[in-house]
């Protein structure tokens, strides 16, 4: 490492010990191998550019990150993995779950994966202050979407659990783009199928508790944690719910939280105790007796002013930087087994801002997994059991 942290040839000012100066140094240590491979592949598959193009790294047909407005909309322009049997060859698998039949008010989250993928084209794989370049440090694929059944939650849940179990058991880190929050039950069920006798804690960012048994006579997006915490691998005492509050929290769900003793912090709790204390609260409870942590990030945990494109917007939520700060600290300090980002509804969105927020949650999570050494995975985490358990919960009806 070249040490230029204290002086600069062109300035008589000392460089202060700031995050910005550390970031400048970190960038110097990142490789360019992934980028060079992308350029070579682009020139081979996309042909060398017309003679008038001076920059000879540019191909005729766009085949990589550039230009950002071109190309096929996978997440972050990651390779589309058509053959999902090969998903275990990647560190991270992005999957869409375009299911919004569990929605009780504003629908449209079936377009969430499309919306998130589209605006993710705006992002580079590099983050300045974190000093991470995902293209250089992990392998990422987009496996496309689960085939959900719009008229039937239960059949969709079966499809989702099967798909997530496949990705999770392969060893690829699953990142799930919803979809409404009803998918939280089948995603956790899919992971639990391969936990054997191990346990998972759930850290749930949301304005809503989502713990009632039924809503409108079905298992809707207000219900995932009632059913997920019926699974022996996902105890309710390890469910942490951050940002809950406001005028949309159903009383029947509150009763369940009280009876099962889930761990809730309101936005006021979080701001009064401070972000670090809130993170410690979450980790202590989610990790108590468990082997890994699953993060379920409902985009509506953030104040409605920042995320208009969602099913049940609620003012008074977390600021984006508060949510991202807590998320990053949690990811760095716990063995994370998966992430879902739910409730992005592009038809209600403005300027793609809600989808952009979801993209940020996903990219930040990957970066903090890299920083904490959880990615790339050198071997499959020990909590992944090779054999699938079939029946985790009794038939619901
Ligand atoms: Mn919610």
TrEMBL record:
Coiled coil: none annotated. Pfam families: Arginase. Residues 1-20 are annotated as: Disordered. One of its GO terms (biological process) is putrescine biosynthetic process from arginine, via agmatine. InterPro entries: Agmatinase-rel (IPR005925), Ureohydrolase (IPR006035), Ureohydrolase_dom_sf (IPR023696), Ureohydrolase_Mn_BS (IPR020855). SUPFAM superfamilies: Arginase/deacetylase. Keywords: Hydrolase, Metal-binding. The keyword Heme does not apply. GO terms for molecular function: agmatinase activity; metal ion binding. The keyword Hydrolase applies. PANTHER family: ARGINASE/AGMATINASE (PTHR11358), GUANIDINO ACID HYDROLASE, MITOCHONDRIAL (PTHR11358:SF26). Belongs to the arginase family. Agmatinase subfamily. NCBIfam families: agmatinase (TIGR01230). This is Agmatinase. It comes from Fischerella major NIES-592.
